[in-house]
Amino acid sequence: MIIITGKSSPRIEYIFRFVLESVLGYNIRFNEEPASGEAVLVYMDTPPQTQSIHIVPHGLLTQNDITSQEITMTNWEDLPVFFDTDGQIPFDLFAAAFYLVTRYEEYLPYTKDEYGRYAHKESLACRQGFLTQPLVDQWAMKLKDKISRQFPQEIPEFRKFSFTPTYDIDHAWLFRHRGLMRTAAHFGRDFLGGEHERNRLRLRVLRGKEKDPYDIYEWLDALHLRYGLKPIYFFPLAIKVKGYDRNISPFKPALKHLLVYHATGYKTGIHPSWQSGDSISVFNEELTLFEAITGSAPVYSRFHYIRFNLPEGYRKLVDAGISEDHSMGYGTANGFRASTSHAFLWYDLSKDVVTILKVYPYCWMDANSYYEQKFTPAQAYDELRHYYDVVKKVCGNMEIISHNNFVSTGKGFAGWKEVYEIFLDQVVYWEL
Predict the structure, then answer these.
(1) Up-side HSE of residue 401: CA atoms within 13 Å toward CB?
(2) How high is the pLDDT of residue 308?
(3) Domain residue limits, the chain
(4) What per-residue confidence (pLDDT) applies to 47?
(5) Regarding the domain with residue range 162-174+212-431, which homologous superfamily does it belong to in the CATH classification?
(6) Measured between alpha carbons, how far is 88 from 135 in angstroms, rounded to an integer?
(7) Mean pLDDT score across all residues of the chain
(8) Cis peptide upstream of residue 34 (ω within 30 degrees of 0)
(9) How far is the C-alpha of 414 from the C-alpha of 141, rounded, in Å?
(10) Which DSSP symbol is given to 128?
(11) pLDDT in tens, 266-311
(12) Maximal CA-CA distance, the chain
C-alpha cells in the first residue's frame, strides 16, 4: 500500500505504521509510485487525482509540540470519533489514533488520583463513554473494509485473536515465609479481631498440615498446559516491607526458588515496587536483585499498583534496558487506556521520537473488578466475556491481569477461581 502525504513527520510515520501494519497487517511505503492495482491512501488537504482513500489531515501529526487540543465528538458508522475533516473518511483517523495511543492527554496538566497516577476519570475515553472499547482497532477495521472494497486485490497479512494471561504475585503465600515477627503480629491482630478460624488455619499451614491458600502454582501450571497458554508472571522484589509493598522478602530462599522456577519455564518480569517510584536507586536495586536471583536482567515489567506517569516512568524502563512494559491500563477501572488491544512501541511525545519500549495493553484486572467495581464472580465473568467479544472482533490480543490470591482458596475470593477456569474452558480454549 502506498501512502501519499503532503508533509512528512515522525508522528505520521509512527501512527501510519501502527494502524496499517501492526493492527491491519498491510505493508506500506511512503510517497512512491503505486504498482498497478495497488492500494493508495492520500493524506493531504487537496483531493487526489487518482483512485485512492482520501483522509484530510487535522494538523496534529505535523506539529512538534504538546498543546491542548479542541475535541468535539461526533459519530462515524456508529463509532465515536473526533478531529472531523472533509475527506472521504470524515475525520482524521490517524491524528485521533495518535492522540489516544500515545496518551497525548497524559502529557497535559491533570489532577492525579490518590496514588499519584493519571486517573481514568480524567481520560477522554472515560468522559465520552468508550473506555470499554478498543476504539482505535475498531476504526482500523472500518478502514480495512473500505480499502478492501475499493482495492479488492490488496490483501493484508492475516491477523488472529490471541489471549495472554498475566499474573502479579504480590503475595506469594498467605501465611508461610513471612518471618517470625510478621507472623506473630498478624496472629495477634487476628486474635484481637476475633478471626480465630483464620489463626487455626495459619497454624495448620505453618505445621505443614495444610497447603498455604495462596500456593496455587501447580494448579496454574496444569491450567496453562491444558489450554496451551503462555502466561507472564511479574514478581515484586521490594527490599523493605513498607506501605503498599507487602510482599515476601526477596532474600527468603523460598521466594528465590519460586522466582527461579517461573523464570525457567515462563516469561517472568519485574514488578517495580511502590517505593521504587520515588527512588531511582531503589528501582535499580530491584533490577539488580532480579538479575542476581534469575541470572538474567529483566526484560518485562509491570509497575506495582500501575503507579507510573508519562514520560518519566517509561523513560526509566528504557534507560534500564527493559524492552516490554505491561502497565498500560488503569488501576481503578477496566478498559483500554490507549484505546487499542494491540502492542505498540512507546512514542515519547516530549522528545517526539519512537522508542524501543514495546507496550502491551491489558483490558481487565481482577482487582479492579473486585475492589473498584464491586463485582460478584458472575458479574466478573460477564465482564470478561465482553472484553473477549470486542477484542476478538478486531483480531487483537486480550491481555488480562490476575493475582494468585484471587484464584486461591483464600477467604473472600470464593468463586473467582472457578470463574477463571470456566472462562478459559468455555471461551478462550475454543479460540486458541
Answers:
(1) 32
(2) 97
(3) 2-150, 162-174+212-431
(4) 82
(5) Glycoside hydrolase/deacetylase (3.20.20.370)
(6) 19
(7) 94
(8) no
(9) 39
(10) T
(11) 999 999 999 999 999 999 999 999 999 999 999 999 999 999 999 9
(12) 81
